[in-house]
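job 3f2a | input accepted
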Amino acid sequence: AGSLFAMELLWYVVPQKRNNGIGNDLLKVFENWAKERGAEGVFIGKPFRKIKLNGSFDGYNSIETMFLKEL
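job 3f2a | predicted structure (71 res):
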């Protein structure tokens, strides 16, 4: 048996609704959804330009152009 991971394809927040935490809220809902289904981690694409591809954020570690957060 292998490990279970969740992977998002994309989410989008219209420009006039940005910078008020909606993107972070979506990310947390996705993480909780994955965790409830037994995922050991989640893969996400680079959700916004501010994140450097060679760094990490909020517990995610950079893996090429994706980020992984173990739950």
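job 3f2a | The first helix runs from residue 22 to 36.
job 3f2a | closed
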